[in-house]
Each structure stands twice: as structure tokens, then as C-alpha cells.
Design brief:
By secondary structure, this protein is an all-alpha fold. It is built from ten helices and no strands. The protein is globular.
Amino acid sequence: MKLNFDPQLVWLFGGVLGLLVVASTIGAILRRTAKVDAARAVIENLNARTRAWWGMSAIFALSLLTGGMGAVLLFGALSFLALREYLTLVPTRRADHRTLFWTFFVITPLNYYLVYTHWYGFFSILIPVFAFVFVPTRMALAGDTEQFLERAAKIQFGLMICAYCVSYAPALFLLDIPGYEGRGANLLLYLVVVDQMSDVLQYVWGKLMGKHKIAPQVSPNKTWEGFLGGVATATALGTALWWVTPFTPWESAGMSLVICLMGFGGGLVMSAIKRDAGVKDFGAMIEGHGGILDRIDSICFAAPVFFQLTRYFFTP
């Protein structure tokens, strides 16, 4: 397997590791100096998030270095785990088991196989068209009509969010951008860095200055101050990283802003689902972050929109 050592990719990921070193150092200092219980709780949460990011960064780096195959395998695994977390929260019945088998072990893997083989035409309609009509048909054949529409809609929504939308991240390797051939990993890392830094910076700005709640019944910790500060600084970061993309600085600013806004929307929608289900997190797999879906909720909305804008404006 050929490893990808693109200089731009190495420099960008080196910057990510540098940020983690700085965050770990600051976290260690703050942990020793904090005297108030509330401050200790916030600092411990930040330190837990930083430790989790070290592990996630190592896995992500390996997937990028191995090129498109590594990215497809990584995000395929994330989709499988996220879909599993999601479906534990929605009502399914014994009659749905065979439909769920198709969902997990046929449709989702096939979706990622199409990404790997660069078959965009089929990939783009597999879940929105073929799975959309297959899932309720297979459920109807089972003969259980109780809460049929609710069950079918929730399974289809899970497929769209956890499999289809997430798979647009590794699908960035499909894009044939003139003068930018073979750099899908750079574009993927750009998306993830801007998206995840927007999450982190919104959290930090919210803790520092947050007073006015955006949607307190959905996500009590999201404030207008955190949203505006986090989106502005993450957009500035994305603009500064224009050199790793096929975009000009102004184009990079626009793309970064879209990523941040879509990421916020994804996080808010997934928070609404958790509140409806009466849970705080989708899972507990990642220290300080909850489950897999808690960590990639913003990518669910950001990845497909970023992909389509890039494809529309920057490919022939």
C-alpha cells in the first residue's frame, strides 16, 4: 500500500499536532492552578477532550497516509458505529431485524464500496433512491404495521445521516479538480480541521463569554456568543489554510463559513434527536465526547454540502 507524504498534508497535520501539544500543556497547567470546583470540572472536561483527540488524530493520520482506501475504511467504520448508536435510540420491532441486516451489512458497505471505486453516479442515488424504496418495502413484507411510518422514517433517516452524509467526507477523493489531482486527503483534512475547530472554538467562546442561549430546550450549552465567536475564528482559520486547498483566500473564507454553519446545524439537529430520546449522549466510546455520533454530528451536515459546492464550482 502506497503511503501519501504530500508536503502540504504533512505541514497541516504537523500544525494539528502542535495545537494538541499546546492544549495538553495548557490543560496540565490549569489543572494544577484551578481552585474552584466549577473551574476544575470545565478544565477536566477540556483535558479529556484533548486526550481523546490525541487518539483520534493518530487514527485519522494513518487513514490519510494510506490514501483513499484508508479514508474509506475509517469513515465506513465510523458510519457503522454511528448507525448502531442511532438505532439503539429509535423504536424498532422484531419484524425490522431483516431490514436492519440489509441496512448494516449490505447497503452501508455497498455505499462505501461505490466511493472507493469512484462510481459517483451510483453512489449519489444508492441511498436516497434505491434504499429509500427498499427499506419500507422490506418492512412491509414482514407484515408488522404497528407504527410503520415512524419506524421506516427513522431507519431511513439514520441511513441518510450516518451512512450517506458521512460518506461524503471520503468521497472528496472522487473530485477531479484541475491542478489539484491526487490531493483528496488534503481537502478531507481541511474539512475536518475547520469543522472540528469550529466545534471546539464555539465551546471555548461559550464558556468564556456565553450568556444568551440559542435553543435552550435543544442544546443548553449553545450560546450566541459561543456561536459567533467560534464561527468567526474557525472561518479565519480556514481562510489562513487556503494554501492547502484549490481555493483562493476569499473562496476559502466562503467555504470555511459554510462548513462552520452546516456543522452547527448538524450538531443542533442531532442534539434535538437526543433530547427527544431523553439521553445526553449517543454513547460513551470517546472520553469527553460521548459516542461516535456525538463527535461526527457536525460532519454529517458539513461534508455533503462542502462536497457539492466544491464539485459544482471547481470541477469541469
